[in-house]
Amino acid sequence: MIRIECPVCGQRPETEFTYGGDATVRRPEMTNEDPQAWIEYVFMRGNPRGWHREYWHHVQGCRQWIVLERNTLSHEIGQAELARDAARAWSRTSEAAE
Amino acid sequence: MKRLASGGRIERSEKLSVSFDGRRLPAVRGDTLASAMLAGGLGTVARSFKYHRPRGIYSAGVEEPGALVHLRDGDRHEPNVRATTTEAFDGLTSGSQNAWPSLRFDLGAVSGLASPVLGAGFYYKTFIGPFRQTTRFWKWCEHFIRKAAGMGRGTYRSDPDAYEKRHRTVDVLVIGGGAAGLSAALAAGRSGAQVLLVEQDFALGGALLSEPVGHAGDAWLDESAAELQGMENVRILTRTTAFGAYDGKTFGLIERVSDHVKAPEAGAVRQRYWQVHAHRTVLAAGAIERPMVFGGNDKPGVMLASAARSYLNRFAVLAGDRVIVATNNDSAYVAAAELAGAGAEVTLVDMRERIGPELDELINGAGVKLLLGHGVLEAKGWGRVRHACIVPVDAAGRAIGQKTIVPADLIAVSGGWTPAIHLWSQIFGKPVYDAGGACFVPDAKPEQHIQTAGTAMAAASMADVIEQGFARGSEAASATGAKGDCGPAPVGLDSGRFWQSDFRKTWAVFNLQGKTEGTAFVDMQHDVKLSDIDQAEREGYVSVEHLKRYTTQGMATDQGKLSNLNALSRMAELRGVQVPDVGTTTFRPPFTPTTIGALVGHEHGRHFRPTRRSPIHDWHVEHGAEMTESGAWLRPWYYPEAGESLEAAYVREASHVRAHVGIVDVSTLGKIAVQGPDAAEFLNRVYVNGWKTLAVGRLRYGVMLREDGFVLDDGVTARLAAHDYFMSTTTANAAKVLAMAELMLQTAWADLRVHVTSVTDQWGAIAVAGPNARALLSQVAGADLSREALPNNHFTRAQLAGVPVRIHRMSYSGELAYEIYVPSRQARQVWEALIAAGPEVNLRPYGTEAMGALRIEKGHVAGPELDGRTTLKDLGFEGLASSKKPFVGSVLRKRDVLEDPDRPVLVGLEIEGMSGAKAGALLFPAAGRTEGHGDGWVSSSTYSPALDRHIAMGLLKNGASRRGETVRVVDFVGNEVLTARVVANHFFDPEGERQNG
Fold this sequence. Notes:
The complex is a heterodimer of chains A (98) and B (997). Chain A has 98 residues and is an alpha+beta fold. Helices cover 23% and strands 34% of the residues of chain A.
């Protein structure tokens, strides 16, 4: 049983969470009408060996979505942050890039 | 074999009634089943897995390969139990297994005569290879093979016992209550850490219990145990096996609470499954002695030297009178001396040419005959050991002289020791090879949360064991922040450096031709011979994983505890490589077989998952409703009147709604409060239709898609206030919709100022449907519910039975209908008020079956149509989608494959004849062969009281252009073919006059 450090609730067993998939894909803007962009977002996934960022949902707790670092090779658990913070950081970087 | 008059750690005065195959055994308190069997003179106690060879008691612990028996009878019957770890109790009944007609005379043993040809790969080569074109011959043979091979039989009766699960977080978990574990627990306990000490035996002490009574270890053990028992921060669990180490520093433990009594006491559980989260763990699981390989080494009467010692010192049973001790290391010398001291005639056969002076002294003093440079080539005797065949051997174990045959009834073997590193390896993987001891030990690193101590770490002497245990315990405690003073390490216990010292890495004995004499086993539980390993090597199965699967070595219930290293070593020898180059097998939980009941705990039957009940649940039950499961919910299915069947009841209920008025509990609908200034924008994004124009006080039906463009869910949302919406979802998809909304609002749409909150449990919901609905509600609520005051798709607030409620005017049944939303606590009160006012308008409750019939008559989609494979277009919702705004799935729903005109679309089906279609039946054209998946399928089916015929909805290729066509409805499961006419899916009142009235 892995244990996840929920940024809101503290360390909790994995049974309180559900897995939500790859957190490295970014949803296209609502106004994006390019099917390829949506196909990339919905269907295309890497299968990394080693550290990976994943969404986990604390459904039996604070109901926050969390971005968790997990090692797909060793099953080690790394840092966890609120998905909302990760999204914010993301938009700041992309704004900076523009 | 006999019980000694004195000695041992048993209570001779407390006699226990213990039987095996109906024979009474002389068991006393403190015995195991195995020690009682030996005390009773039993030789053969089991038949082997493949060759049905007689097997006796080989060990005194978890590694037992042979003595598998069944315990108890009736519904507590338990097969494949190791006699060596079964604590004797009063009323214990046990029996042999895998033998017919009897244990002594087992017909299956004829397969043993054929053992030269029944080697590794026999079944494949014989039955599958030559017949690979047809599996029929193999299937025919398989039946008999499975019958012949095998273990005990389980019971088909359900388990009468209760089990429970517990969770615990501790600072330090100590696995093993021997000298190392006790030392570790003492150090950690004195530091002030929260300590859990687990021991699989019923007594603490581990190997100390196999020392003679009066040994210095006794006092040490008593003092240590007493000190630990006095510490409030230390908890000791005996009869508890740590069977698995898992991610997140979690360990699985099974505590056998009631296995040492005939049946659990009233209210007590049989076993308790502990999930322990331990910050640091000290693994002190000890070591397992390794067998020697020679002809007939599996016969009853061959036993590990350490086991012979345990039976002598702990259980006061002398396992043989004429004993051969066969060894390649120092540790068996003490056993030999003690057996001789107890009156046996002992010959010690050591493959080494030289030994140290202190061993010589020990042996001479005890009167043991010593043969250096010799090995046991074969154990002889029909049914059990009667002679041993001894030869002088060279350094490789090969005979270099003539054999002598000596009488013997016990051959005690010691081929070295194997540390029990299973739990470490389950987490940290590959161990390292300790060439000195020819064994694998943990690749210990300071950062690992499991540290190993004692003989599990190949500690050579008792002083080392204690020192290691104490050091690891102290380190573990300080790693968790415990600051107390550990005090000095315990001293004063040393039995010399006998363990694993001066070790000859040869454990098989061969004749002059370089072959084992007779049948020599490596894996005794799975009947894998040394020659099978040789054969695997010849045939190219040289890697450890291939070797294992080809020969099945290590795949029995003992998981190769005794055999893995001997098999690996043999392969290394044959290939001319080092043991680590062959590899090591992967250790996986469980360490010992684990009762599934304990893992399940109470989570079975009705408690498999939580049951959700509507706030009106009790009323339904009190009024005779038949309940049905709908996901986790229990819902009223129908309300039978005087012996009515389901079919009669739902037809009556549905007809009643169309004629008068009915009420149905719809509290299970998912309800989500959507609140905030951007709530309308949020709805606009999740639903395909537009929401910006919805006025306060109004309702709107909406459909939402998944990101990939398929339909996710549908439901009605009410605008309660400017920034306050009340969304409803289907019962089944409530959790999914909420999770999706939360993901969006926390990531991609984090800029939207919206909160979503599940309010499913906070609101009860009651649908009132039928021509008399308005009359009923007007009377009870005292509100103006006229068509003008409350048109369709509007809601109003009212008082009903003194309870503030919301009345939504909307229809699922197609009748004039309302949904009443009421705080859960008052839901039953409101329901009963409606029922009380019912007689005047002829009100009846109806269940989910009638509700389903009504919705199919109206052609509404539900779960069977929203199955995750249908698009807006498939369901005829294309017109609902707004083209003015993007929404979830708006781009991908237009993918070419989803726009394919050949996709099955929603149609209605009028079934001809008197029987209904089965949901899932396939649709085929009126003529032609019925093969493959057809043109579509039936999704929902019912008898329609309004139309007085069977109707169905389904998805049919080109359905829109096939109206009027006759199709065949084929149920391949029930082998039934019906014909049906394709129609629009709105069967009843397509104009909606009734619901808008």
